[in-house]
Design goal:
Number of helices: 8
Order of helices and strands: EHHEEHEHEEEEEHEEHEEEEHEEEH
Strand content: 15-25%
Structural class: alpha/beta
Strand order of the largest sheet: 10-9-11-12-15-14-13
């Protein structure tokens, strides 16, 4: 443990210690000489030299100490390297506290909610609501705790908010799992993309592949097809523009609101647009690219939708690969807590120095009250 100064220039305020000295010198009792007539004819004797003398030295010492502490407060003293071995028990909201106390019996431990700011668990406390992932909370808690503090984490049997891998912390964690009823994982369901196509005469040849694609996704639904002179009638997940005509303004506005728009390769790319590759076939040929222009975004086929120019259309994996682009699978966030026990090996985090400002402020307040009391006693004594 060592003492450090976060703002050493604040010690320059110690020069203010001269003020109480000057005040006490200026306010000391004045002695007045009175001449008597009988003493007029006596020869004058040299006056004794006056010595510097401080009255009320206890009050002076209190004032000096008060100013010294104010200067120290400005310098922001702090203690570094404090050892803290108090055990911490972090409970994820949703776990019953009575079950948590039955599993972990540590009377000297500090109980915390595994939630933002890690609030203390008090009697009759209400569990906080949090949407922050548990993996992020574990790393943050590990970073804020001293390296010597043991950590116990109590979680239900099924937990949401995981990353793609186990969290890696700087300390070994006592991982306690409490079986919680009604936490079975619900199967993930996804609705297949809905296609709506508008085409010109040349783009009509590609409809056979789009119908096969739609049948692979939705066997009981017919493909919505019309020529490029008709407007899109509903709000499907994917709109396909198989025409060389410029994109209609309402179609661009729909794509700007988040809709997925697939356009024909014959549609020219605007000048200055950004082109981002999205999909290559097994031979490395680019099939689909993203066009970004004037804050508008759509996807563009790089070739004609014909088997002769795009052999990937005949691949049995083509519908699934395109669907994976249109509807990427979300990262898994729910897992059994038993399988997500945190690993060790992360570097420990340096702990910030603990400032002494709260104790200094309390001491200064007490000294100020003492100084006021001593000054008032001195005034009353002078009046008496």
């Amino acid at each position: 443990m060592s003492l450090l100064w976060l703002f050493p220039a604040g010690l320059l305020a110690l020069a203010a210690l001269l003020l109480p000295l000057l005040i006490h010198l200026a306010r000391r009792d004045q002695q007045q000489l009175i001449d008597f007539a009988a003493l007029r004819w006596l020869s004058a004797k040299p006056r004794p030299r006056r010595r510097i003398r401080f009255d009320e030295w206890p009050l002076l010492l209190v004032r000096l100490l008060l100013l010294a502490l104010l200067a120290v407060l400005l310098a922001r003293p702090a203690l570094e390297g404090l050892r803290d071995t108090t055990p911490r028990v972090a409970v994820l909201p949703g776990v019953a506290l009575d079950k948590a106390h039955a599993v972990v019996a540590e009377p000297e431990a500090r109980w915390l909610w595994l939630a933002p700011a890690f609030p203390r668990i008090e009697p009759d406390t209400t569990p906080p609501h949090t949407q922050q992932p548990i993996a992020s909370l574990l790393r943050e808690l590990d970073a804020t705790l001293p390296a010597e503090a043991p950590l116990t984490v109590i979680v239900p049997s099924l937990v949401d908010g995981w990353d793609a891998q186990r969290p890696q912390l700087s300390r070994a964690v006592r991982w306690q799992v409490i079986e919680t009823p009604g936490t079975q994982a619900a199967p993930a369901t996804r609705t297949a993309p809905q296609l709506q196509v508008r085409h010109d005469a040349e783009g009509k040849a590609a409809l056979r592949y789009l119908r096969a694609l739609n049948h692979a996704w939705q066997p009981d639904t017919e493909l919505n097809v019309a020529d490029d002179g008709q407007a899109f009638t509903d709000n499907p997940a994917v709109r396909v523009w198989l025409s060389s005509k410029p994109l209609p303004a309402d179609l661009l506005a729909w794509a700007d609101r988040g809709g997925t728009l697939l356009v024909d390769a014959r549609l020219p790319v605007p000048q200055g647009a950004q082109r981002t590759p999205l999909w290559h076939d097994d031979a490395g040929n680019l099939l689909l690219e993203q066009i970004t222009h004037n804050n508008q975004r759509w996807w563009r086929w790089t070739g004609t939708l014909e088997a002769a120019t795009m052999p990937a259309l005949l691949d049995a994996r083509f519908p699934q690969q395109l669907r994976s682009l249109l509807q990427p699978l979300p990262a898994p966030v729910r897992a059994a807590a038993e399988s997500m026990t945190p690993d060790t090996g992360a570097a420990s985090y340096p702990q910030p120095a603990r400032e002494l400002a709260p104790w200094l402020i309390a001491t200064i307040a007490l000294l100020f009250l003492l100084e006021r009391w001593m000054a008032s006693v001195r005034r009353r004594r002078g009046l008496a």
